[in-house]
Amino acid sequence: MTARSLALAAALALGPGLGAPAARAQDEPGRVPPARTVRIHLADGARIVGTVIEDDASASVLRVRTAWADDVAIPRASVLAIEDASEPAAERPTSVVRFEIDASGGAAKTEPRLLRAREGAARAEFRFLVTGRVDAVTRADGTPLPHKTEPRPNATLVTVKLPKPIESGGSEWIGVVSYDAGAVSRGSAAEAVFRYRRGAPVDEAAVIQVVLPPGAKLLGAAPPATEVPQGTLVFRKDLAQGETLDVEARFTTAGR
Amino acid sequence: MRVRRAAGGVAALLGLAALLLPPLSASRVLAQGVAEPADSREVHEFFEKLERAFDSGDAGALAKLLSKRYEDDFEADGGGRMRERLAAASRNGARIEFDVVRAVPRAVGATAVVRTRVADRQPDAESDLALFVLRKEDGALVAARRLTLDEDAERRVAGRTYRAADGSFELGAPAGWAIAPPRRKVGTSFETVTLVDPESEAYALFVAFAIPFEIDSLETMARLDAEKLATLADKGTSPRVLAEGKFAAAGLDGYQQVTEARVGGKDQVFRRVCLQRERTCYQFLFRSTPSDAYARDAVAFDEVLERFRPIADTARPRRGVIDGNLYRHADVGFEIAAPPGWAIEEAQSSYTAQVFFTPGSGQSYAMVCALEIGHPIEPDALATPIEEAEKDKRKTIPAIKRLGAIEDGTVDGNAAKTVVQSYPIEGFERTVKSTYVAAGTTLFVLVLHATPAEFEAIEGEFDALVESFIRTP
């Protein structure tokens, strides 16, 4: 997901945004129950409630009519799950991380980050580490945030200065898009392997979305992943605090 | 695949219980019911007498009240220093105030938690909290000072119940027993509580600690414990296992061993119960002296186990997050990046946070521990935990040596000190590089544990790990 689609998803969401409650996928992701109001869960963690008005599996976007806006187009690749809106949403918070792997073995990573100001003082400047090159830091609405980077061993140190401080005890979600040139290792001449591990700070549903390079074919995924649409894997697991979700995707290298 | 780490620190940990036990020759069983009962008033009067004896400078009276018979206790628990302080204060014309914070009177003995303070020319003179055990001898109370207590932990004692610093468990003492949390050394992560019966030799030591990563099961720990006990037994005798096997209590699984051993010229029974909760071990070490007292003491030991209550995790600090090669802990406030190919594994421990980093192969590992101290750490004070840790380790590993001097530096703008040490563990030489970082009120310790050959190969990667460390708001 690009910074633009991250912004789109966030702009569409009326809920708590990037840290929104998770999907309870009652339907196979990507298949839309006809003539029903549905709740669509996006890779960012955002939720959209509306009626699907165009559901052509071959199209790259899903068109949804909402009560609060005109028809909106949602990139199909960012849809994690669609469920009946009459069902209550799950209470677990969700972390969603998306990787888009390219043919060179690098991966663009889009992730939400929570900035928190501890009790006692408002804060505008935040620091955090990112693996690889930082391409964009945005607010949840997609607005670019001024930031600077400096190299650290095996990481990049990002310093973000918010135009308006976060109040004492408050928090704000931002989006970070980065690029890790060494995200994929070669299993063999014809096979590439992507591995990623993520832990849960609280009980939550962790979602990791992995988009394979164009033309690559999936050879195996662990744990089992949903592949919707083809070439886009969605790993999902309810994690207790401290547990981790270790994902591995093996796929053919380009041209095989 | 988890790398099985070498046993760094295990010896010290396993030796802990033995070190914290009071000297075995320091007391004796008193016949019950042959003396007048001591009551709370009597305990208070005793300390008033102690105060008067001190004020009068009557060394004989002091010696009688603080019985010479318990001199070993004094030496073991800083009592020698206390006597020196008493003598110095007496020479300076100061007086000692004794406040009985709490007392548990029994038929022929009592326990009292007493705060002593040198009321001399220094208005902010340091006070000292200690557990005294009192026993009646020839109709008079005599006392032994058994333990220096932790002021913070003392506040978590309510009646016969102790609540853990992080709220993760409650521990209860049998009726008539004293519950006392000894003073914690800076940099130690284990939580220790002692339970003392003033009328017998029965004694319980409770320790909550993070199970070292090199120990893959409680059965392994049981084996190591048995080996340790064998080293304590008197020459020519060997411990006899009376019972051992799986054991469950308070909803937690574990194991127990009951062993008879002749230690310090006495036949004693040691009952060790270990209960596991994730990577935390709750260890109870009960001791009965002489052996035939075990049948009676076992009732009290069972009561301790029955009253032990692990508490849900809600009050505990949140965990950190592993994100690929990054680890971040928002609540403690730090982030760090692992070198390529290194695995990250978080430990549930009694440190504020503890996380391990292991290379893809070999026997080496790195570890980052965060310890909330509660007050700002002065850069100069960083040498103290280094010295203390080295001193503690020397008790079990005399061959420990420093490779070079302690080096000053900074990590992410915070004052830091780095030391490299070498010592053998279970026959294998280890090189250990430790960087202590003072970051506000939190002490961070970043450690590389490696074989000498691997140390040279991965020291650079460890340095990169340290260099990637950032403190977050």
Fold and architecture overview:
The complex is a heterodimer of chains A (256) and B (473). By secondary structure, chain A is mostly beta strands. Chain A has one helix spanning 3-12, and strands spanning 37-42, 47-54, 61-65, 72-75, 79-84, 94-101, 107-116, 123-130, 133-139, 147-152, 155-166, 171-180, 184-188, 191-199, 204-211, 218-222, 226-227, 232-239, 244-252. In chain A, the strands form 4 sheets. Chain A has a 7-stranded mixed beta sheet with strand order 9-12-7-6-15-18-17, covered by helices on one side. Chain A has a 5-stranded antiparallel beta sheet with strand order 4-3-2-1-5. Chain A has a 4-stranded antiparallel beta sheet with strand order 13-14-19-16, with no helix packed on it. In chain A, strand 1 and strand 2 (47-54) form a beta hairpin. Chain A is globular. With 473 residues, chain B is α+β, with helices and mostly antiparallel strands. Chain B has 3 domains: 3-148, Nuclear Transport Factor 2, Chain: A, CATH 3.10.450; 156-314, Mog1/PsbP, alpha/beta/alpha sandwich (Protein Transport Mog1p, Chain A); 318-471, Protein Transport Mog1p, Chain A (3-Layer(aba) Sandwich), CATH 3.40.1000. Chain B has helices at residues 10-20, 40-56, 59-65, 71-76, 79-91, 151-154, 218-232, 294-307, 383-396, 452-468, and strands at 95-105, 109-119, 127-137, 140-148, 157-158, 161-163, 169-172, 178-180, 191-196, 203-210, 240-249, 252-263, 266-277, 280-288, 309-310, 321-323, 326-329, 334-337, 343-347, 353-358, 365-372, 401-402, 407-411, 414-425, 428-439, 442-450, 470-471. In chain B, strand 5 and strand 6 form a beta hairpin. In chain B, the strands form 5 sheets. In chain B, strands 19, 20, 21, 22, 23, 24, 25 and 26 form an 8-stranded antiparallel beta sheet that branches. Chain B has a 7-stranded antiparallel beta sheet with strand order 8-9-10-14-13-12-11, with helices on both faces. In chain B, helix 2 (40-56) runs antiparallel to helix 3 (59-65). Mean pLDDT of chain B is 77; it is low at 1-37 and 68-79. Chain B is 25% helix and 39% strand. The interface between A and B is medium-sized, with 30 and 29 residues.
